[in-house]
Specification:
The protein is α/β, with parallel strands linked by helices. It has 2 domains: 33-127 and 253-318, Bordetella uptake gene, domain 1 (D-Maltodextrin-Binding Protein, domain 2); 129-245, D-Maltodextrin-Binding Protein, domain 2. 45% of the residues lie in helices and 21% in strands. Strands 1, 2, 3, 4, 7, 8, 9 and 10 form an 8-stranded mixed β-sheet that branches. It has a two-stranded parallel sheet with strand order 5-6. Strand 1 (35-39), helix 2 and strand 2 (66-70) form a beta-alpha-beta unit. Helix 2 crosses helix 9. The longest helix is centred in the first third of the chain and has 27 residues, at 3-29. The radius of gyration is 23 Å and the shape is globular. It starts with a helix and ends with a helix.
Length: 320
C-alpha cells in the first residue's frame, strides 16, 4: 500500500465516521416537535372519534403532542389532498378511509392527480363493519323485509349512504345486484345528519357503521336489522349478520394511518413502532371497546396490499 492510498483510506474512514456521527443523533431526535393528525371529516363522526382516541395514546409513545386537525370537505379530499401535499418529514400524518377515498381519483370527473401512491401507508387502525338500521317503530324487522319491499315496489325504499364509492354505497350496490332490486340511495354529509333523517322518518333505512349506531341501539331508539360482518359483533350481540339472514354481504370501513409519499424509512419505522405499541396496549383496546370500535392491526406490506386489493374491488364494482 502506498502512502497516498493509506492516507486516502484514512480520509474515507473519517468521512464515514463523521456521517454516522451526524446521522445518528438526527435519527434519535425524531420527533422534535408536535405532530399533526389530519382527519378528513368534521368533528363528531366515526373517524374523528377514532382519531382523538388515538392521538391521546400516541402522544405517550412518541413523547410529543399529537394534535387532531379536521379538514372536512370534498368527500374527504380536502384532508387527503392536504396530507398528500404535506412535507414528508413525519410531522404530518392522517387517516385514510377506504373505500371512500378511492372515488376521489378513480372517478375521472374529479380530475385529481393524487392516488394511493401519494401516501406512505403506515398501519390500519380499526375495521368498522356496516349495518342497516331503522327507527324503533319501523315496519321493517329484518333485511329480508327491506329486500321484499324493494322487489314489490322498485325505487321506493330509501337507504342512506355517504357519497359515491363509500362503504355504505358499495354495500347498497352489492345488495341490489345480489337480489336484483333497486333502492333509492340518499347521500348525507355526516352520520349525525343521516341518523336525524332516519329518526325523523325522512329515510327508511340507515346505512352506517357499528360504532356509529351501537349507543342508540342499546338505548332502543333504533333497531339494527343486520350487521355486514363475518360474525356477530360483540357490541351488538343481538343483531344478526346479513349472512345469517341469507345475504352474502361483508362490508366495512377501514380507518388507517398514513403519511405523505417518500417518508424517510427511519421515520416510517419509528411511527410504525409507536403506532403498533399504542394499538396493542390494553389501555387503548379498552378505550376502543368503550367506543364500540374494533382495532385491527395491519402494517407494512400487508397494509399496502390490503389497500390495493380494496382499490381494485371498488373500481370493479363502481365501473370506474
Amino acid at each position: 500500500m502506498t502512502p497516498f492510498t493509506a492516507r486516502l483510506r484514512l480520509v474515507s474512514a473519517a468521512a464515514a465516521l463523521f456521517a454516522v456521527a451526524v446521522t445518528a443523533p438526527a435519527l434519535a431526535q425524531y420527533p422534535e416537535r408536535n405532530i399533526t393528525l389530519i382527519v378528513p371529516y368534521g368533528a363528531g363522526g366515526g373517524t374523528d372519534v377514532t382519531a382523538r382516541m388515538l392521538a391521546q395514546d400516541l402522544e405517550a409513545a412518541l413523547g410529543k403532542p399529537v394534535t387532531v386537525e379536521n379538514r372536512a370537505g370534498g368527500g374527504g379530499w380536502v384532508g387527503w389532498g392536504a396530507l398528500a401535499r404535506a412535507n414528508p418529514d413525519g410531522y404530518t400524518i392522517g387517516y385514510l378511509n377506504v373505500p371512500s377515498m378511492y372515488g376521489g381519483y378513480l372517478d375521472r370527473q374529479h380530475n385529481r392527480s393524487e392516488s394511493l401512491a401519494s401516501f406512505t401507508p403506515l398501519m390500519n387502525h380499526v375495521l368498522d363493519y356496516n349495518v342497516w338500521a331503522v327507527k324503533a317503530d319501523s315496519p321493517f324487522k329484518s333485511v329480508k323485509d327491506v329486500v321484499e319491499a324493494a322487489k314489490k315496489t322498485p325505487n321506493a325504499v330509501t337507504v342512506s349512504a355517504f357519497g359515491a364509492g363509500s362503504d355504505d354505497h358499495l354495500a347498497i350496490l352489492s345488495i341490489e345486484a345480489e337480489n336484483k332490486i333497486k333502492l333509492i340511495t340518499v347521500h348525507h354529509k355526516s352520520t349525525a345528519e343521516a341518523k336525524t333523517a332516519a329518526l325523523g322518518g325522512h329515510i327508511q333505512v340507515l346505512g352506517a357503521n357499528i360504532s356509529e349506531v351501537a349507543e342508540e341501539a342499546r338505548a332502543g331508539t333504533i333497531r339494527v336489522l343486520g350487521v355486514m360482518a363475518p360474525e356477530r359483533s360483540r357490541f351488538l350481540p343481538n343483531a344478526p349478520t346479513f349472512k345469517e339472514q341469507g345475504f352474502d354481504q361483508t362490508w366495512s370501513v377501514s380507518r388507517g394511518i398514513a403519511a405523505p409519499a417518500n417518508l424517510p424509512k427511519d421515520v416510517e419505522a419509528k411511527l410504525t413502532a409507536a403506532l403498533e405499541k399504542t394499538l396493542s396496549s390494553k389501555a387503548h383496546q379498552d378505550k376502543a371497546s368503550n367506543l364500540s370500535l374494533e382495532p385491527r392491526v395491519i402494517k407494512g406490506d400487508d397494509y399496502k396490499k390490503f389497500l390495493k386489493d380494496n382499490e381494485v374491488s371498488t373500481k370493479t364494482l363502481m365501473g370506474w
